[in-house]
Amino acid sequence: MLDLDLSAPLLSITHATVARDGNRVLDDVSLEIQLGRNTAVIGPNGCGKSSLIKLLTRQYYPLARLDDQPTVRILGKDRWNVEQLRSHLGIVSTDMHQFFLDDGGDLTGAEIALSGFFSSRGLAQHHVVTDALRTKALEALDRMGVAHLADRAIGRMSTGEGRRVVIARALVSEPMALVLDEPTTGLDMVAQHRFLARIRKLAAGGTTIVIVTHHIDEVIPEIEHVVLLKSGRVFADGPKADVLTAANLTLQYNTPITLRRAGDFYVANVERDS
Question: C-alpha angle with apex 156: 113 to 53, nearest 5 degrees?
Fold first, then answer.
């Protein structure tokens, strides 16, 4: 077990710029997300959300600067073994669910959950699966409400069911935080409701939730901190009540947007042209 400073931020980024194909996809980003503080990172397509996640997974690294060295620290550390990082920070994207489908869709819910122990996309002959690991995998599936899918192939699950199985895969290592990238994309209204209800239970149980999205209706009531991205930069950052406003969204998207409460959730709409 690593000696972690649990008082350190979950994520601390200072003056990070990332360039791809000559374009700055993140531009001088400084950002801090605290452990135990549920956060939503919101922005339109192309604003840098995916690049931010790739900074976390160590797929991208910031450009060097002459004036100040950029830093990307996770749980107080700027150097990580990627396999160890995954045991503390569960990152789930829609691409991961699609991978299991594109790979034949034959893996069962239990096999997918178990693969999380080995940071693999399935189980290989050299993987030693003990009864203890099987028990933990079933517990993770149960936390997401899909224990009944342990023996069902992911190709025979609904999109919502498959998405929850993939999150169970991230939960087997009991991460301190879960980063969800566009989590309800492709889900119908009922599936979205059930999915977000499970995420709320995880938040209530002490798992830090970070939702990266362009859907305002994915901002669960447990979210306390909101970051708005625009054109690769942090446009606004702070408490949800201060940042998630119609005025900020209108400036962020460069179009008039209204915002209203629907129970404990928010609903945003683009104003019609008069």
Answer: 50
